[in-house]
Hints:
Low-confidence stretches: 1-6
Oligomer: single chain
Structural class: mainly alpha
Radius of gyration: 20 Å
Largest sheet: none
Order of helices and strands: HHHHHHHHHH
Number of helices: 10
Helix content: over 70%
Amino acid sequence: MNSSKYNGITEGVIWKHLMLFFLPVLLGTFFQQLYNTVDAVIVGRFVGKEALAAVGGSSSQILNLLIGFFTGVTSGAAVIVAQYYGARDAEDSSRSVHTAMILAIACGAIMTVVGILTAPELLRIMETPEDTMADSIVYMRWVYMAMIPGMVYNMGSAILRAVGDSKHPLYFLIACCLINVVLDLLFVVTFKMGVAGAAIATALSQLLSAVMICWFLARPKTEESVRLELSKLRTDWRIMRRTVHIGLPSGLQAVLYSISNMIILTAINRFGTDIMAGYSASVKLNNLVITSFTTIGNGISNYAAQNLGAG
C-alpha cells in the first residue's frame, strides 16, 4: 500500500483524531434523520394526518426491523475492511471491499423481495388502522424497491469511514437530503401524488446516493486497496464468514430493539389514527437521539478496528 496515501488515524493524538473523525459522523446522523423525517413532515402538512400516520407509523417500524437487521450484519464488513486497511494489507483490503459490496447487493435484494411480500400481513398483525392501511402498503413497497441502492450507499459510506474518511459520506448525504426535500415538494405538493410521491422521492434519492458513492469509490484517484472495480466483484468466503460472524450479533440487537417498538406501536394503533399520527411525529425526534449513540458506537468500531489491524 502506498504509504503517502495512508490515512493517519492510527498515529498521533487519539482524542484529536476522534474529534475530527466523529464530527462529520454526528452531523451525518442529523442529516440521515432529517432525510427520514422529511417524508413525514411534508405529507403530514400537505396531505393530512392519515398520510402522516401511514408514513411514520407501522410502516416505519416494519422498515426499521429489516433495515436494522441487515445494516447490523453489513456493519461487520466495515470492521473487516478497517482491520485489513490498518494492517496495510492491500490485497485483502480490496477483497473485503468487493465482498462487502456483494453482501450489500444480496441483502438489498432479499429485503426487497421479503418486504414487498410481507408488508400487508405485517401491517395487519400490528393492527394498523384501516384508513391508513392502503397508503402504508404503497409507501413500504416503494421504499423496499430502493433497498439495493440504499444498502449499496450505506456500505460504501461504511467503507469510507472504515479507512478514516468520514467527510465524503457526509457531503453525499447532505446533497441527497436536499434533493429528497425538493422531490418531496415536487411530487407531493405540485403533482399531488400523496404518500406515493413521498416514497418515490425517497427511492430516487437513495438511487442517486448509491450512484454518487460508487462513482467516488471507483475513481482512478481512489486508493487502489479500496477502489471499487466491477471486474473484481466476487465473494471471498473466508472474508464473508468473518463479516457475518462480527455483524450478525449487531443485526440481532437491532431486531430486538425494533420488535420492542413494534409491540408498543401495536398497542398504540388500537387508539386510532389521531394517536398514531402523534406518536409517529414524536418517534422521529426520539430517533435522532437513539441513532446518534448508535452511530458513535459504529464509528468507534471502525476506529478501533483500523488500529487493531495496525497492531
